[in-house]
Amino acid sequence: MSNPHHTVNLHHLAEEAVTEAIRRGQTVATAESLTAGMVAAVLADTPGASGMLQGGVVSYQNTVKANVLGVPWELLDSVGAVDGRVAEAMAEGARRVCGADIGVSTTGVAGPEPHGGKDVGSVYIGVATAAGATSFGYSFDGNRPEIRGQACAAALERLLEALASVSYRA
User: What value, to the nearest 5°, has the Cα angle with vertex 21 and ends 67 and 45?
Assistant: First the structure.
């Protein structure tokens, strides 16, 4: 986030997401590990966010992923926290515990050291809707704040895609 253009980009993406969610009558919740609340905070910086942002869970530790979001311990034990299936379970957990239409999650390695056998910059974004959950893998470059910023931007982009694919409420 040291690049001011990146910050502007995050706020632009958040503004689009808030506008689109309200237009489509959709609510959103977040489950964040490496971004530690950044996605929810950038959404909340946007006027009108209270019309769509239900809440979020900062699940930095696996105990929170499992005990709050319902990520199965067996999954965490077998693949670690940085995995697409974990991102999907986190997004579904956020959707469920916050009572939202769409859940979006972030999990990854911001550095400076690899973690759990995963390289620095390995990030997964999860998105959950009534239709189910999916995940997207990324490999980002940069320092810790830059990787976290890129992960936040990717989460907002995937949220926008999910909103675009949701049919309008009658």
Answer: 75
In sequence order, the 6+-apart residues with CB closer than 8 A to the CB of 22 are: 48, 51, 52
Residue 128 near residue 92 (C-beta atoms within 8 A): yes
CATH number, domain containing residue 148: 3.90.950.20
150-167: pLDDT as tens digits: 999 999 999 999 999 876
Give CA–CA dist 6/41, Å, rounded: 15
Q: How many CA atoms lie within 13 A of 141 on its CB side?
A: 0
What global pTM score does this model have? 0.94
- Asked if residue 170 is part of any domain, the answer here is no
How far apart are the C-alpha atoms of 155 and 144, rounded to whole Å? 17
